[in-house]
Amino acid sequence: xxxxxxxxxxxxxxxxxxxxxxxxxxxxxxxxxxxxxxxxxxxxxxxxxxxxxxxxxxxxxxxxxxxxxxxxxxxxxxxxxxxxxxxxxxxxxxxxxxxxxxxxxxxxxxxxxxxxxxxxxxxxxxxxxxxxx
Length: 133
Known about the structure:
Layout lengths: L9 E12 L4 E11 L2 E6 L8 E6 L2 E13 L2 E8 L50
Antiparallel strand pairs: 1-2, 1-4, 2-3, 3-6, 4-5, 5-6
């Protein structure tokens, strides 16, 4: 499927504070799922209204944005946020935990698991184990 976004999104996972502004202001916690210069996807435990204005606290920066969609999933609600005009995210301003560029992920390749000592091994058996065990 062809990417329709104007800017690539980076995958991440980071708990952030979000303020729902407007009618009934509320402080929420969300998981930052992905981010780009002009928007983000957040996972909430509850539904947030489409069209609502949110203030996201990303490190020492505050980003205001509007909820463009909110979808119910098996694990909560995913909300697409478009940042307000004039506010662009960059790694220099805030780098989320567990940041990953999906373009660099190769299908079918996984890293070798780490042992308790931090060494890695390949194959189906840990180091020090013989085939016949």
